[in-house]
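[stage:ingest] chain + small molecule (glycine)
[stage:ingest] validated
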Amino acid sequence: MHLIQLTTPSGDTEISVGELLSSGLHGLEPEPVLLVDEQVQSFYSELFSPFRCITIPSGEQHKTLQTVEGICRELVQMEVDRSSLLVGVGGGLATDIAGFVASTYLREVRFGFISSTLLGQVDASIGGKNGVNLDGYKNMIGTIRQPSFVWCDLSLLNTLPHKEYVAGIAEVIKYGVIRDRDFLHYLKDHMSALLTLDGDVLEKVVTTSVSVKVNIVQQDEKESDLRKLLNFGHTIGHAIERDKKVLHGEAVATGMVLAARLSNTLGLLSASGVEMIEELVGLAGLPVRMDMDPDVLYQNIRKDKKKSGDLVHFVLLEELGHAMIRPIPLTELNHMLHDLC
Ligand code: GLY
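[stage:predict] done
[stage:export] tokens:
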């Protein structure tokens, strides 16, 4: 098992990567109240039955203040107080909701996460961003509070639908692209093993991804500058997600390819750099391209909460392993999107 420590001004997290769930739950002090994703609950109901449990409904449409309110009511009924420990169990959706509940119920109750999806383990559960959507706008309401612990239990990935597992690989590729060129070469050599959930490869991939994110969050917890690099591929990715019924990771994969091509058009990333990203995305079985209307894409980017005025702070690549932020005027971006799509 690997342990990674995240230290920030607002709190510390001990992140464990390995197989922990069955033995670990009974060792927690005080006895936790589990906030569990309904699908994870159905797979592991026996494991959770000794504990007080609240079910979090699965599906992005439930990532709302109403769901938060319902969970808080159940906590009141259970007489959960400030000495309690809340543990969110599930993918990014469940841990985002659980973290937001724990950060606001009684103004904050100690909390931890057991992360059950690849995307959750390498991204959503790490770094303290918790929140819900509002009127279709993603993560509009939220907090940044660090959980006391995150368990990335690799055995939980065995029950994850393969398509969802593959979607998580997009965020893994992202870490190599923005910060760690050697990791990209490792991924290229080990992609088939990663796709069959080889234990050693998975452990190395999750540990490396978490370490890259921890390094960034420790330097910029509140996303003043450096943490923005984690949004590589996400400006276009979120715009795709608004338009198409695809998984977040699938949209981010195509978003990364387009952001790489944009970097090349602007005289930054080399053509071979773009090819490497396209190759990795393709090897993972993620979409290198999607049929998209550039006007729809542009209108959706205009609605992004990370836009400021007439500028979009776009994450681009100088070279593989080196990302940078460049403000791009919306009108200029509109022309570029027409050329790219
Ligand atoms: N998922 C991006 C971040 O945590 O900043």
